[in-house]
Design a protein that fits this description.
54% helix, globular, single chain, three-stranded antiparallel sheet, binds fe (ii) ion, 5 strands
């Protein structure tokens, strides 16, 4: 999914088509010639002798994911694909963010970057996802699949990539570094976390189960994997936005270093998208045993969840983001002499976007 060239030598070099990996292997970095230091913070990942960035914990993880994907397709399975047309644009958009910064109104942009760093840190919750008893819940075995490795290193590697691990910074710290480099250690709004938690609390209100006939732990896991996959895919817009804003020399004090940081994060996201895609595809290709010992095609559940989530996220997310941004914009423009002209120009730069009519995961039955 990433547009940044990935360091794929390990993929090419991998001649064995092993499908089983240990926990330690899936977390293995390999050797770096130089570590990644982000604005003074030692982060994960590093550089090879040729100066190219290589993502953390990918020595075996990347070839493993490629092998599981190939195995799925060779056995006639379908690797699910989310259409990029479903990704809503970031708000404020690049031109709007640049306009604000040009007028010295940096708060909404600093806030947006802080929100991104906080949300990245939340990614660590993936390690707390409960795994179902696959032998009981699925008819077909899962040996040698990504599904079998979720608790065997894939979740842990993902959590560490997002939130950091020990002394080592992860995406949270890398976004903070990019923001602080570009805007020279700006004042950080203190209510970011509180506001996100408030919004999340409202959204997290008990949702009705979509598939009460299947094991609840299995259903929650599929819901979580689908949700995180969509967040990861939607992040693509965030990355191109971050890259464009932070690399603009007119408003960024460190256009090269700040935007390079975004590229490193972006290349680290590739294994997240790809392992989640293959794990959900493996589930879609299997048969689920219901709690009353009947069977249900996995595809019905996985596609049903993706459809429900996509329909909701493409409808509500742009509006939510817009409401939040406008609140902080309003506060940031208070008392400015040219407030009205900035607001008018801001509005004229608005991106018009509407979600596509279909998600590509429409259920066959009409009840969902
Ligand atoms: Fe991330
Ligand atoms: Fe990620």
């Amino acid at each position: 999914m990433s547009e940044t060239p990935l360091h794929t030598d390990h993929l090419n070099r991998s001649s064995d088509s092993r499908t089983d990996y240990s926990f330690e292997e899936l977390l293995d970095d390999g050797q770096y010639a130089e570590p990644l230091i982000a604005n003074g913070v030692r982060c994960h990942g590093g550089f090879d002798e040729d100066g190219r960035y290589r993502s953390p914990r990918t020595r075996h993880r990347l070839p493993a994911i490629a092998t599981w994907q190939a195995a799925l397709q060779e056995s006639g399975g379908e690797l699910l694909e989310i259409s990029k047309a479903l990704i809503p644009p970031q708000y404020p958009n690049v031109d709007q963010a640049i306009l604000l910064c040009r007028h010295g109104v940096r708060d909404p942009v600093v806030r947006a970057l802080t929100v991104i760093s906080v949300v990245e840190g939340f990614g660590a919750v993936i390690r707390d996802v409960k795994l179902p008893d696959f032998d009981r819940s699925l008819v077909e075995p899962i040996e040698g699949t990504a599904l079998a490795h979720l608790g065997q290193g894939l979740f842990e590697a993902h959590a560490r990539d997002e939130a950091g691990w020990g002394e080592q910074g992860g995406h949270k710290q890398m976004w903070e570094a990019a923001r602080d480099l570009a805007f020279e250690n700006p004042k950080i709004p203190q209510d970011v976390l509180m506001r996100i938690m408030g919004g999340g609390g409202r959204r997290a209100r008990k949702r009705e189960r979509l598939f009460p006939q299947i094991d609840e732990t299995l259903e929650s896991m599929i819901m979580m994997l689908s949700n995180v996959l969509l967040v990861e895919i939607f992040a693509e817009q965030v990355f191109s936005w971050g890259h464009a804003v932070l690399s603009n020399p007119e408003i960024s004090a460190e256009p090269d270093r700040a935007s390079a940081m975004v590229s490193y994060i972006q290349s680290d996201e590739n294994p997240h998208v790809e392992y989640l895609r293959v794990a959900l595809s493996e589930l879609a290709g299997r048969t689920i045993r219901t709690v009353d010992d009947k069977t249900l095609p996995g595809r019905e559940v996985v596609f049903g969840m993706l459809h429900a989530l996509l329909s909701q996220m493409t409808r509500t997310r742009p509006e939510e983001q817009k409401d939040q941004a406008q609140e902080s914009l309003h506060a940031a423009l208070q008392g400015l002499e040219n407030r009205q002209s900035i607001e008018e120009e801001f509005r004229s730069l608005e991106t018009v976007w509407a979600p596509p009519a279909t998600t590509g995961f429409e259920p066959l039955s009409a009840e969902l």
